Amino acid sequence: MLKMAIAAFLLMTAGVLLAAAEIGDDGLHKEDWFKITFRDIAEDIEAAKADGKRLAIIFEQRGCSYCAKMHEELLTDPEVRDFIEANYHVVQYNMFGDEEVTDLDGEVLTEKTAARKWGYVFTPTIVFLPETAPENLTVRDAAVATMPGAFGKWTFLDMFRWVAEKGYEGDEHFQVYHARHINELRAAGRLDAE
């Protein structure tokens, strides 16, 4: 009986360890499909476009429980992960980091001064950039959408879908788009969250 209890405990522990995202030296959770770039925003937008994708920047910080939830619950969900990976280049920024960043207006900053310049104070904050790099704008002014904070699966995924579908160019506000999608999920018997 004791051997069975120990085996069950080890299986549960292994499951938790497998679900946990890798944490880098900077204390941020890592995804192997996140892009490593020189953080030149214009170049990153063009590289994403060349792959038929959009650029999304995720600001995170060490010890952020909401960032951990995003990585461990949302980005491990195959429906969420597969959609984002298929449609976006995602570049991770450390809200308090010192890596060099080149804004769309040409100003060279650190990650932390970029976060201040652009007005991002919550982690995670996901910034969605346009398909083509504009000139002489800041990232904050060029962004087509921004998602500050952590949300449940459907809000999170719907924001990525709405941007991919260019909902920001139409008349359907994100909240209306999201409510419509929630009703569709409810009707299909798929509403397991939110």
Q: Brief overview, please?
A:
The chain is of the alpha+beta class and 194 residues long.
- Biggest sheet character: 4 strands, mixed
Q: What gap, in angstroms, lies between the N and C termini?
A: 40 Å
Radius of gyration: 18 Å
Uncertain stretches of 5 or more adjacent residues: 4-11, 13-19
Strand order, largest beta sheet? 4-3-7-8
Strand content: 15-25%
Keywords, please?
about 190 residues; globular; two-stranded antiparallel ribbon; about 45% helix; alpha+beta; 4-stranded mixed sheet; 8 helices
3D architecture notes:
The structure is a single chain. By secondary structure, the chain is an alpha+beta fold. 44% of the residues lie in helices and 16% in strands. It has eight helices and eight strands, in the order αββαβααβββαβαβαα. Strands 4-3-7-8 form a four-stranded mixed sheet, sandwiched between helices. Strand 1 and strand 2 (29-30) form a beta hairpin.
Can you lay out the helices and strands and say which pair or pack?
Blueprint: H1 2-19, E1 22-23, E2 29-30, H2 41-50, E3 54-60, H3 65-74, H4 78-87, E4 88-94, E5 100-102, E6 108-110, H5 111-118, E7 125-128, H6 139-142, E8 145-148, H7 153-164, H8 174-187
Parallel strand pairs: 3-4
Antiparallel strand pairs: 1-2, 3-7, 5-6, 7-8
